[in-house]
Amino acid sequence: MTTLMSAPPAQKAPKAEGGLLDLVLRARELSILGALVVLVAVTAIVNPRFLYAQGVEDIFLNASILVLLAVGQTLVVITRNIDLSVGSVVGLVAFITGKYVSGDDRSVVMAILIGLAVGALCGLVNGLLVSFCGVPALVVTLGTLYVIQGIGYYIAQGDQINAADVPQSLLDLGSGGVLGLPYLPLIAVLVMAAVGYYLRAYPSGREFYAIGSSPEAARLAGVPIRRRVLTAYVVSGLLAGLAGVLWLARFGTVVADAAGGWELKVVSAVVVGGVAIVGGVGTVYGAALGALLLTTIGSVLVVLKVNSFWQDALTGLLLLLAISVDRLLALRMDRVLRKRSAHHVS
Fold it and tell me: TM segments (predicted)?
């Protein structure tokens, strides 16, 4: 009788631990959402024009490209890696697709496919070097950042793509919409939802978290670590390629170093959004909220006529704060789980 009564708690323990982790993640995402609401409300009080329809639309349009990059970066960071080449990939793809569509009777669909292919190829190179060659991700992606930049400068030869040379059908993708909703945010939301659902609902998606939580345990459990890490980099490159095409559609005028420095913005958005830099924890939804928060901060500073220097300072401060919170939460969860394990053993 005693054995039968003590069995259920032991079976429920893993669920309780998973529930604790889900609760922490939800708390992080809700705190970001709350900070976003407070920021918007305070700014609207100071300057009511901030919430005019055009202003709100501009925020979502500007955040969309960063959200796409953050979703791809999330996959990489969850596996305990990083991709610093995404900004360079965006610039390269934007210029290559701009060159392509500047010709006569160029297909916009083909331009998008070219952008996706270039981005996927860059991700494939990163993934092969990291997963199969064992080179540290920081070294690989820092190197490919400069290589891709160099290729972009070589192709550009000092030229730039002008909006007048870009087909209106492609420019409409960056400024148009359907049923009153802009295309760019819709694309970002669809991609975010698809990747988020895959990570949560499919066993192969959960394997990304297993790799980040404990690579050795994941290996012993039969998880194809190299294949999953390679997949993460290819998806990150693919989304960077898509972001490059959308960059061209959004801004029209493109130079060789478009999106230069954006790799740090992307990493900041991901970490501020609750994705642990040490891997294994976080969601694409939190990363998207982090991207939206950083974009909103930039818009708020412009509206309040604050020096743009403070945007970088605030981004750095939020990054340090997020990493510190991650560390404190990790220590707290470790203590809680140890107490629960000791309780069940006793």
Answer: 30-47, 59-78, 108-129, 135-156, 177-199, 230-249, 270-303, 309-330
- For residue 62, what are the domain limits? 49-330
Give the chain's count of helices (H) and strands (E).
13, 2
Number of domains in the chain: 1
Q: Exposed (0-12), middle (13-18) or buried (19+): which is 317, by Cβ within 10 Å?
A: exposed
pLDDT at position 5 is 40
| 157 domain-assigned | yes
Helices 86-101 + 137-156 axis angle, to 10: 30
pLDDT confidence of residue 336: 60
Q: Does residue 19 lie in a domain region?
A: no
Residue 336 within any structural domain of the chain: no
Of the given ranges (47-61, 131-145, 248-262), which has the lowest mean pLDDT? 47-61
Indicate which CATH number applies to the domain containing 250: 1.10.3470
CB 70 within 8 A of CB 290: yes
pTM of this prediction?
Answer: 0.85
Q: What is the pLDDT of residue 300?
A: 84
In a domain, 345, yes or no: no
Report how far residue 183's alpha carbon sits from residue 118's, in angstroms, rounded to the nearest whole number: 22
Cβ count near 51 (within 10 Å)? 12
**HEC string for 217-285:** HHHHCCCCHHHHHHHHHHHHHHHHHHHHHHHHHHHCCECCCCCCCHHHHHHHHHHHCCCCCCCCCCCHH
